[in-house]
Amino acid sequence: MDVDGGSTSSDSTGVRTIPIHTGRNRTFYQFTQQSLPACKPVLTPAWVVSIFLLMGFTFVPVGLITLRLSHSVIEIVDRYDAECVPEAFKGNKVSYIKDDSISKNCSRQMKVTKYMKAPIYIYYQLDNFYQNHRRYVKSRSDQQLLHGLKYNHTSSCEPQQSNNGLPIIPCGLIAWSLFNDTYTFVRGGVELRINRKNIAWKSDRDHKFGKQVYPFNFQNGTLIGGGKLDQDVPLSNQEDLIVWMRTAALPSFRKLYGRIEEDLEEDDVIDVKLTNNYNAYSFGGKKKLVISTSSWLGGRNDFLGVACIFIGSSSIVIAIAFILLHVNNPRPYGDTAYISWNRKGTSS
């Protein structure tokens, strides 16, 4: 039997000789026989120390550059969920947010500490909101978002699958809990224009939300979870929804609200007029408004820089430790002479 994919040669007596392997099967044969070329370096102290030093001298500068870029990002954060509750409702914030007869308008001020170059990104931040909860993540229908009423198998959207016997588009808890606070920025009596286009991923707009799918029977129940949608605008153009539907992995997260395409000067005072609609009080959440610039690495995040500096510093310390150990306890026969096949008189 030919088990290696090659052929065998035999003489007239029928004695089997060495298999003859074709070029196509030679590599597979060498792999099965473990005869492929391999590199088996001997890690001498010089090599080990050099590798750790190279890692250290590479990671430390990269970490310092990354950390500097992160600190060059100007960021202003304002928590407003507690301050925008009237004094009479400080002790019962849930009743305030659920009472539609009470105005939810609120005014805040944000002072620019350093010059901020456009584009300036506006984020809303939610804390203690678990978008990664298993039941919450599953409560959606990607096929319905793409095909609308043409797709009827939406059992995964429970408990927001239908209302009054009619399907809900978009269905599911994620869409139902859409964030609906709004912000207006005024500088020196002039309203700053906020660009709210192209805030979602292009791949989501083009391939995950249908261009002919419109909201239907959405937020028509007795219990309203969040924002409403314009029934005359297709889902692919409702970028607030698209941004919200990309669920976060951590309980504290930021989502892009828009962009200010004007530079902000140092000591500028921005008057923020917001509507405090979203109910984060029921689950003990926090709401923050963030305006931030960006670098070519993105927003402000010190983790990557600190991690690179830690890895590089650790590598240098380990290299120094190996050097000291090698100086105090050198190899008796040199770097490689201790190996059995390098010793004279040693049989194979």
Automatic annotation (TrEMBL):
Oxidoreductase recorded as keyword: no
Main location: membrane
Pfam families found in the cross-reference section: CDC50 (PF03381)
Keyword Transmembrane helix in record: yes
Regions crossing the membrane: 46-67, 303-325
GO cellular component, one term: plasma membrane
Keyword set, alphabetical order: Membrane, Transmembrane, Transmembrane helix
Annotated localization: Membrane
Domain of life: Eukaryota
Annotated family: Belongs to the CDC50/LEM3 family.
Protein name: ALA-interacting subunit
